[in-house]
Amino acid sequence: MSANADQVQFTAYGPERFAEHLPFARRGHLFTVPGDFPEDTPANTNVIDWQMAVYRSQGEWEVRDVDGNRKVWGTGPSRRVAVGLAFLEIARVRRARAADIADRRVNVLGLEAVPPYTVEVTDGVTLVLTPQAIAHLVRIEATDFGHPANYHVTGPNGGGAYVIRAEKNVELRTLEVGVLHIRCGCDPDGHRFDNETDALDYVREELAVWEVCPKSPGAPAAEDQQPEDDEVAGMAVIARTVRRAYSDATELLVRAEDYTVTSVLADGSAVWTEHESELPDGMHFELVTYLADLLAGTEAPAGLGWRESTEPGVFTVSLPPVAP
Ligand SMILES: [Zn+2]
């Protein structure tokens, strides 16, 4: 989120804000210059947000940073002009610094000007897993010493709040969902890497589900592009549920009309079909719920990139890769 002088929010300060020996007026206004300002500097050169003060000084307005060198960044006949000049000066200094960083990376370190790999976390959910159910964790309630905590949860649709006691067979699992950006020009906030090995090590360690940004050169074609975050998280939960019983599952067949899984496949071969037996451990109910959640409001699963199988109304969907 970048900013400019016209969008600044001011907060008044009084005599208690700064010690008397400091070079700020007793009264004035505080505002923030975001660390990612100006927008045209790459995210790897961002700094922390700066708090600034603007106040009257010798018939003019003056802008000074609060926590750094307390340097004057702008003065003018009005607050608006002083703040505008401060933004211009900060932009100039930060652009010069960004150019120095790029120059040093290229000419001293022999790297690309901007780290080519960025891992961005886009979504995350903490699940409470019990032998019977999966729920979304809302909060943890501490209880008396020696008694298990209570997990306040909701069902997978966000409804049906209830409580699960933190007993031995109950497990918490956080699924982080993210995107690996490779020379795609997105410039998101995230962890940056100069080589693929380090980037992939990090992705495999930190993310349960991830995709390469579709704008990256050589990324999968448009029809395989990264789905919406909700969809990624939804498929992660479905995959996790299926793999409780079929650990090598790679693909499902789903009847769209009633959200029913009709087959589980592992590398193209069926490891379970609805004609054979029931799914174990209440899995059928869970999967119907998750699939209903995922497909609700969708015209046709084909819109999510699912392919219709040889049986009309039954779609095949690949599961995300297994988290290590
Ligand atoms: Zn990208």
Structure commentary:
Strand 7 (134-141) and strand 8 (150-154) form a beta hairpin. The protein has helices at residues 79-107, 196-206, 229-245, 283-295, and strands spanning 11-13, 28-33, 50-57, 60-65, 72-76, 117-129, 134-141, 150-154, 162-165, 171-182, 191-193, 209-212, 251-255, 260-266, 269-273, 307-308, 314-318. The protein is an alpha+beta fold and 324 residues long. The strands form three sheets. Strands 6, 7, 8, 9, 10, 11 and 12 form a seven-stranded mixed β-sheet that branches. A five-stranded antiparallel β-sheet has the order 1-2-3-4-5. A five-stranded antiparallel β-sheet has the order 15-14-13-17-16, with helices on one face. The model is unreliable at 221-227 (pLDDT under 50). The longest helix is centred in the first third of the chain and has 29 residues, at 79-107. The chain folds into three domains: 5-107, no CATH class; 117-223, no CATH class; 243-318, no CATH class. The chain binds zinc ion.
